Amino acid sequence: MTKRVCAIISDYNGTLYPASNSKSKDAIPKELEIILSEIADHIPVCILSRNDYESLGGRVPFANIVSCILGIETIVFDRTKTKKGCKVKTRHLLLERDILHRRGYALNQLARDVGIKFPGIETVRRFTYDGLLASITFDWRNHKEYRRNYWIITQYVKEKVSTMPRDCSSSPFLQTYDSYPFLDVHAAQCDKGFGFDRIIAEMDDYSKGPILYLGDSENDNPAFRKADISIGVSSSKKSPKLDCQYLIEYNHLSRFLRRLQDNDFEFHKELLTGSSFRVDSV
């Protein structure tokens, strides 16, 4: 049975560029970017990421919609060809600006406290399009002693988050990962499922047809469960538990997307197969 894909929503980190490629500055390989740009001329190609717009915007010129920081900010682009590139058409924030401003102050304080308690831990801050702090990541992949103390760090952050300011509509959200030595703290409750819904809400009639989702980690699972066609992309030796229908190796992603395009976006699992493909139905 075939399904004609009406839109593609994809994670960025580890999905559109290999997780092990640290020298590429997280850039999408040119061949894959060209294919995605060609596809975007026919159906929407959207990005759903834990990253912020500053780190994503210039790297995904083909995107119709970019949902940043797991849906805390969603940006819709007018892809009309101009000399200056695509323009921002609309922008939506999950929280009101004054609430987000207060949460940002609390996130900064949390970052300082964690830095003092665990010297050398890497802290990544993520901001909205207009500079409001909306999320932080604490990353200890480069610290062997911290990797052995995963639960100590997690419990400390959890206790700190529990004291952060709340209101009747939302509260800060701690995201942990079983397979990776880092965690996220977001200004509001959010996940890839929420970001998926935000993108669908902006796609008008396209949301009435099958949506294909690409991801590589366990935080993609909420989006995998919502997609009509869900494909996990493997680019490292780690084997996170993915709630997807199919798995494909990163090295074959471009080939699959080209096949999908050549087949007029009619998806069937044979498009994933080939002499060097690894395909699983989960």
TrEMBL record:
Q: Single GO molecular-function term?
A: hydrolase activity
Q: Which Pfam families match?
A: Hydrolase_3
Query: Organism's domain of life?
Result: Archaea
- Give UniProt keywords alphabetically: Hydrolase
Q: Does the keyword Hydrolase apply?
A: yes
Q: Which InterPro entries match?
A: HAD-like_sf, HAD_sf
Name of the protein:
Putative HAD superfamily hydrolase
Give the source species. Candidatus Nitrososphaera evergladensis SR1
